[in-house]
Write a structure and sequence with these properties.
The chain is an alpha/beta fold and about 500 residues long. It is built from 13 helices and 17 strands. Helix 7 runs parallel beside helix 8.
Length: about 500
């Protein structure tokens, strides 16, 4: 009898052990192939347009390092940003939720309610708990220095860059943050004064910038260069550990200025076009440095690098009387829309993933995915369970070339400034301020100028139902169809204090 009891206990223990350690097929396949957890790099470029890089059709701007990423990995033709502007996109990326559920839904920075808060959970926190060293370099945009939601409380071991996205408009700032401390740059003089950094910068005959308010341009500290170098130090220091590196690059977001025009100096272009191109090529150069370092450290084979932009095309850097940037570079999304609106092109961005140990080179995928898919993807890669109630879906099957196993979104949902959008297959629905819903067939009508809501009422109704369900009320932003007065009354009813006036506290 004792032997039978012992046998039963052993069998039960073994069963429980197996149950507790069982993994998804992708998780198991990944670990068997790798032997160790991969490092993960997410490069989020600020305001980079769909067609700004060579592998997405650009012919004038040189981006050899990014193009090589695509050659050695997978290029995505249906990558979608988390929102139409900077901060809310970053919130979806960090939280794994679409804009109807994520904390930050706009670019405001008025008080604590517009920042990540205690209790919010991020992909960095998840990876940190899984044993990863985590670093953020560049623009955070999800909290001010005196708020809870700073990077070091949101899962990042190390942070170097801007907290406030408005502060990030200054390329030669008075200071940056290293974790919670300010690092001042006296070499940058008074360039941080609004009139100086917003003024027209000049370039000498060699294409070297002469920033306003800076006595010696040769000693000036261009923020992008500073935090990029710090990011490489982070990689060197953590080469023996799996790490998560979030590179939130600020160029080519305005203010448009760059230390040197480089290969574009002697082009017979308008200066504004030279500056725009030089900013993008400078980003490309830094990506090249990163990839070279990963190879030198012999860790590039098992490092996943994901590349994307935070919103659709901007109007660019052209001045009055000049050929518009989007026309000069022919860089627009193949679909109508741009940064700040809520048509498809406001969210449609370039996407690339490189992971030599797992991703076959030279692939192009039309899989539809959005920023909120990154958190569950990272969770599946490292073998942990993601939080419940996410909107994201892991795209690991797509990365591994197992297209038939890939779960797809029924729809993607966005909201911005009380307007709403839904992509459902090839259908795109848009509801503007007055509540009028229009739907378009993206395949037949990518410019979204032929409303088919009357012709396909059942599709329109389905999209409208999605918009109703996916929006959750916010104590910061008015709901779609809610007037400012109604929003104020709702906040009073819920006992939410009135928001203070906008104060630029960096």
């Amino acid at each position: 009898m004792k032997i039978l009891k012992l046998t039963f206990i052993l069998l039960l223990t073994g069963s429980l052990f197996f149950a507790c350690t069982s993994k998804s097929g992708n998780q198991q396949q990944n670990e068997e192939a790798n032997g160790e957890k991969p490092s993960i790099v997410f490069i989020l470029v600020d305001d980079l347009g769909y067609g700004d890089i060579g592998c997405f059709g650009q012919e004038k701007i040189q981006t050899p390092a990014i193009d090589q990423l695509a050659e050695e990995g997978m290029r995505f033709t249906n990558t979608y940003a988390g929102n139409a502007v900077c901060a809310p996109c970053r919130s979806t990326l960090m939280q794994g939720m679409h804009p109807g559920h994520a904390r930050v839904r706009g670019n405001g920075y008025k008080d604590y309610r517009e920042a990540l808060q205690e209790g919010d959970y991020t992909v960095a926190m998840m990876l940190q708990e899984a044993g990863y060293k985590t670093g953020l370099f560049g623009k955070w945009g999800l909290a001010l220095h005196n708020q809870y939601g700073i990077p070091n409380k949101m899962g990042f071991d190390e942070f170097y860059g801007y907290l406030n996205q408005r502060h990030a408009h200054n390329q030669y700032p008075e200071f940056l943050y290293h974790n919670t401390e300010r690092v001042y740059f006296p070499e940058n003089g008074t360039h941080h004064i609004y009139e100086n950094y917003r003024g027209e910068q000049t370039y000498d005959e060699n294409g070297i910038c002469q920033p306003l308010g800076i006595d010696d341009p040769s000693k000036a500290r261009y923020a992008f260069d500073v935090y990029c170098e710090k990011s490489l130090e982070f990689v060197r220091e953590n080469k023996d550990n799996p790490f998560f590196l979030y590179l939130a690059y600020t160029p080519p977001h305005g203010v448009y200025e760059v230390p040197e025009l480089g290969i574009y100096n002697n082009k017979e272009w308008a200066q504004s076009h030279k500056v725009y191109a030089a900013m993008i090529t400078r980003v490309d150069t830094e990506i090249g440095k990163l990839m070279q370092l990963l190879k030198e450290l012999n860790i590039d084979e098992n490092t996943l690098v994901v590349f994307a932009s935070d919103n659709g095309n901007t109007n660019g850097n052209s001045k009055d009387g000049e050929t518009p940037t989007k026309t000069f570079f022919n860089n627009e999304s193949p679909r109508a829309g741009q940064k700040g609106d809520i048509l498809d092109g406001a969210f449609h961005v370039p996407g690339i993933a490189r992971w030599p140990m797992q991703i076959k080179p030279g692939q192009t995928s039309d899989h539809i995915w959005a920023m909120w898919d990154f958190l569950p993807t990272a969770a599946e890669i490292v073998g942990v369970n993601p939080p419940e109630n996410l909107d994201g879906i892991s795209i690991l099957s797509t990365l591994l070339g197992e297209k038939e196993k890939q779960k797809k979104h029924d729809f993607l949902y966005w909201e911005y400034k009380e307007e709403q959008s839904v992509r459902m297959g090839n259908w795109f629905g848009y509801k503007n301020f007055d509540g009028k819903l229009e739907i378009y067939d993206l395949e037949k009508n990518p410019m979204q100028d032929n409303d088919l809501s009357a012709e396909f009422p059942e599709i329109a109704q389905k999209i409208n139902d999605i918009m109703k369900v996916e929006h959750t009320p916010s104590n910061v932003w008015p709901s779609p169809g809610e007037t400012s007065e109604e929003f104020v009354q709702r906040m009073k009813k819920e006992g939410v204090p009135e928001r203070p006036k906008n104060v630029a506290d960096f």
